[in-house]
């Protein structure tokens, strides 16, 4: 095995593939990067058994400056190899390994590293996904769907199914839902392609890693689903994720259809006020802030309190307060995350009763994104 | 007590004073910020008993937008108060407190916090330094002296005196020395002022905090020394530090006067090579790299090795290699810190024997800065 390559090109692809490589795995070979050198391309693979990422660097792209002298394959210790290649002195580097030896030499300028690799054939096989049918999604939309739903997945392993995002494809509509049973986020998109129905749960962690890989240069992502795996393909990369086993709870009837009180806020201003109020609530045993809406007086007041430290009271700026007066207490951290999910927009918050979940929707598009927060009983 | 102030001006001064405030102190009142409101100025004080910082915000500076309505004094919980003032909505804020109440109200825009303070009179007295004589130092020189010496102080409490920097003023020359017994850094400056002799040891931690406060806007620092305290005064700030008790070891004869081998490197290039070699040495039990200098062949080679992971060999770029061949092993982390201490310059490294300390000095100024590193026996 011998090749020379542009170091930045290699590092970029290595960083992508490294997202799937964990130093904590119980399977030693998975702490390695699998490197396959073909006559015209390199194939880098990383996996933690849940997520596997395979990415190709082609000699056809001149920016890669890839020159393969001798094909071959090896597994290199990923963390260590990554630290080496980041610190090499020149803009290109050469990797070589001879015959049956597992020693790989990395040279760049006057610097020469020799590191011990593992036999490439010991690396686990990647899943094979034979699904003929695929679904193409614009990368920016997929990125948004991920960002807007993973925020509500559970981080507790007591109900593993809730650590994933539930995706349903039906009637040319994709519905993504996540809930940790205290809050819920639901995003809908209309599909251009006509695709067959599907129903699966992807681990939130997989979606987080996938989301981080969808930079501005990625335009379209192709999605294929198998029995217990999903494959996202884009550019030179294949991203595999295990799916979660089990039935996702029925969330379709959780979102209230009617409201007794509605109000609109600028999300960034409300977020800043919630951040201030939570300074106090974080100091108290029950992390709760209180919102008081008075329709006749047209006031919205947010309260935070900690018996030891002090309290805060803030008059919120709002529009369109309608319906009945309400006093409601909730965990400000759920509200923070929900507001980060909507970004710069104006949001409508709709309440039914002090102890019933309330909804947040973007004012300009009620239909496609809704978040639900369960209030806290304080008496 | 009541005043209104520009929030950024206050935060800047608060951040400076906060350097002395620890949340880990065993003296509860020291977790607080002491705030004294005079008719024309605020005085903020923070202390952890070792370091005390007092800083003044004057109404004379219009940028401060300080308007005092009622003088007074209070101690506020520093960490918590800091988080509040950073998150307030408007560019100004008002603090008020009435009569004997310890409750302090902070208002900014529509946001109103009420927090519990402590009685100002319970705050410890700051040291009084009556020394008539003072020494004025340019802030940039003092900053350099600090940066170049604190890197060699000991972090181990087994010999407390070595956690400080030893400062000697004699014959209008200031000498600052630090050593942790594995390496040493010594910086000399000639003084313009004629000052009396002095000899004291300042905790490295105090100097680190002082160094961080000496931004580009500080021009001159006035230094006054008392029995067991030193006071650095600049701009609107008084920085007090406790001095260390005990006799600092005599370091004057540690620095070799002659050398058998000398070589010059560009510090940044050598640093990059050391960083690469240390990748391997960090993986091995004894964290050591080896430097081999061959005068006839005019080669300088750096080796790093880890039996499990692999090895690295690098031909170094150098100038002026003279004297005898030498092979020497040392801890690369000491060399890294030493090279960071000299910045962009060319350095001369001088060796006497494989097991004797070697020196690093800037090539263009041998006189004023010298670092010493003790090699490691590897056989």
Percentage of helical residues of chain A?
10-25%
Strand order, largest beta sheet of chain A: 14-11-12-13-26-25-24-18-22
Overall shape of chain A: elongated
Average pLDDT number of chain A? 94
Number of strands of chain A: 26
Oligomerization state of this entry? homodimer
Sheet with the most strands, sense and barrel status of chain A? 9 strands, antiparallel
**Low-pLDDT residue spans of chain A:** none
Percent strand of chain A: 35-45%
Question: Count of DSSP helices of chain A?
Answer: 6
The name CATH uses for the topology of the largest domain in chain A is DNA Polymerase III, Chain A, domain 2
Q: C-alpha Rg of chain A, in Å?
A: 25 Å
Q: Give the termini separation of chain A.
A: 71 Å
What is the CATH class name of the largest domain in chain A? Alpha Beta
GO cellular component, one term (chains A, B): cytoplasm
InterPro entries (chains A, B): DNA_clamp_sf (IPR046938), DNA_polIII_beta (IPR001001), DNA_polIII_beta_C (IPR022635), DNA_polIII_beta_cen (IPR022637), DNA_polIII_beta_N (IPR022634)
Subunit structure (chains A, B): Forms a ring-shaped head-to-tail homodimer around DNA.
Organism (chains A, B): Lacticaseibacillus thailandensis DSM 22698 = JCM 13996
């Amino acid at each position: 095995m011998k090749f020379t390559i542009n170091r930045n090109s290699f590092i970029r692809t290595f960083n992508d593939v490294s997202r799937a490589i964990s130093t904590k795995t119980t399977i030693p070979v998975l702490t390695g990067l699998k490197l396959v050198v073909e006559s015209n391309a390199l194939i880098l693979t990383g996996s933690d058994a849940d997520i596997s990422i395979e990415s190709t660097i082609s000699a056809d792209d001149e920016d890669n400056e890839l020159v393969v002298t001798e094909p071959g394959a090896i597994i290199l210790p990923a963390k260590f190899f990554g630290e080496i290649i980041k610190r090499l002195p020149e803009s290109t580097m050469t990797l070589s390994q001879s015959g049956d030896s597992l020693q790989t030499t990395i040279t760049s300028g006057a610097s020469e590293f020799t590191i011990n690799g593992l036999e490439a054939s010991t690396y686990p096989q990647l899943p094979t996904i034979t699904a003929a049918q695929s679904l193409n999604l614009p990368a920016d939309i997929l990125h948004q769907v991920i960002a807007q739903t993973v925020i509500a997945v559970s981080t507790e392993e007591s109900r593993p199914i809730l650590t994933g995002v539930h995706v349903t494809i039906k009637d040319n509509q994709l519905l993504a839902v996540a809930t940790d049973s205290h809050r819920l986020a639901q995003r809908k998109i209309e599909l251009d392609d006509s695709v067959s129905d599907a129903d699966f749960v992807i681990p939130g962690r997989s979606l987080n890693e996938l989301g981080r890989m969808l930079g501005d240069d990625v335009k379209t992502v192709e999605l294929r689903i198998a029995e217990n795996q999903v494959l996202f393909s884009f550019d030179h990369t294949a991203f595999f994720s295990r799916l979660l086993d089990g039935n996702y709870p029925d969330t379709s009837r959780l979102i209230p259809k009617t409201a007794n009180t509605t109000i609109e806020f600028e999300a960034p201003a409300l977020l800043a006020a919630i951040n201030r109020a939570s300074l106090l609530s974080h100091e108290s045993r029950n992390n709760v802030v209180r919102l008081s809406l008075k329709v006749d007086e047209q006031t919205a007041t947010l309260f935070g309190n900690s018996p030891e430290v002090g309290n805060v009271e803030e008059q919120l700026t709002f529009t369109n307060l309608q319906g009945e007066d309400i006093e409601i207490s909730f965990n400000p951290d759920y509200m923070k995350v929900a507001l980060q999910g909507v970004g710069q927009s104006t949001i409508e918050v709709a309440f039914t009763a002090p102890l019933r979940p309330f909804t947040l929707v973007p004012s300009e598009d009620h239909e496609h994104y809704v978040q639900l927060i369960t209030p806290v009983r304080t008496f």
